[in-house]
UniProtKB/TrEMBL annotation:
InterPro entries: FNR_nucleotide-bd (IPR039261), SIP_fam (IPR039374), SIP_rossman_dom (IPR007037). PANTHER family: FERRIC REDUCTASE, NADPH-DEPENDENT, NADPH-DEPENDENT FERRIC-CHELATE REDUCTASE. The lineage of its organism: Bacteria, Pseudomonadati, Bacteroidota, Chitinophagia, Chitinophagales. This is SIP-like Rossmann fold domain-containing protein. Residues 122-229 form the SIP-like Rossmann fold domain.
Length: 229
């Protein structure tokens, strides 16, 4: 067992030395309990070519990597923000909480996922706090055009207030559960030019997608990304 773990770490060490890229943490903001914004400088990145959401595979501990979505990027300074939900325990959460200005960031690569968002009149975002970066990225990719609405599922009431105060530019409300969203949101219905973007917990994304389809929303208008199980 110990030998197998040793081999695994040696292999990931070899992979890392072959592929790893480096950046630097510029600053860390704690928006509210559990929600960190890590602003990073990534000198090797060509952000001007980003036309879809991206994910960066960050080294969070020896042999451990986690995906996060770069948001609010600036191709000139080659900097972007990672909005990291640390409301649970895991190596990624522990890593994010430990970061300080000037720390090195090691990552295996950055790649796109999903499709380029459409410049439609109305974009509806449904997700959990792990999807904030994804939603900011969609806003940037559509140049802030169109009407944005939707809901973020934040379980604790005090965090819901803090969320809305922290992210006023993300003009979407908060609800306490998928069930509450399904029961109360007038947005769970079809409308011309309305596109739906779902991201976060895979079960939540799956059930919201199913619900939207039951309400007659065509599959091509639902863009779903399961981030974690
Ligand atoms: C393409 C892509 C983009 C992503 N972008 C982001 C992003 O921008 N910001 C972000 O915060 N996450 C993002 N994620 C999700 C992130 O990679 C996972 O949440 C990851 O599992 C966190 O690692 P961890 O080490 O903290 O927890 P893990 O060790 O992976 O999990 C530990 C436990 O915590 C639970 N858990 C994991 N994540 C959450 C969560 N968010 N809330 C509650 N419980 C959780 C797991 O079910 C497990 O039980 C993205 C994932 C993908 C695939």
């Amino acid at each position: 067992m110990e030998q197998a773990t040793g081999i695994k770490y040696k292999l990931s060490g070899l992979l890392e030395s072959a592929l790893a890229k480096r950046g630097t943490v510029l600053y860390v903001l704690r928006h509210y309990a559990g929600m960190y914004e890590v602003r990073v400088h990534l000198p090797e990145t060509k952000m001007e070519s980003w036309n879809k959401p991206q994910h960066i595979k960050c080294k969070v501990a020896a042999g451990r990597y986690r995906d996060y979505t770069p948001a609010v990027w600036d191709p000139i300074t080659k900097s972007c923000s990672l909005f990291i939900d640390t409301s649970h325990e895991g190596p990624g959460s522990e890593w994010a909480r430990s970061l300080r200005s000037g720390d090195p960031l090691v990552y295996l690569g950055i790649d796109s996922y999903g499709k380029a968002p459409l410049d439609t009149a109305e974009q509806v975002y449904f997700g959990d706090p792990s999807a904030i970066g994804h939603f900011f990225a969609l806003m940037q990719l559509t140049n802030g055009l169109g009407k944005i609405s939707g809901s973020i599922i934040v379980q604790h009431e005090q965090h819901r207030e803090a969320f809305e105060a922290s992210f006023p530019s993300l003009s979407i409300d908060t609800v306490c559960s998928t069930e509450a969203l399904a029961a109360s949101s007038p947005l769970i219905s079809d409308a011309p030019d309305r596109q739906f973007y779902l991201a976060g917990n895979s079960m939540m994304v799956h059930s919201l997608r199913k619900l939207l389809k039951q309400q007659g929303v065509a599959a091509h208008k639902i863009h779903a990304q399961g981030f974690w199980k």
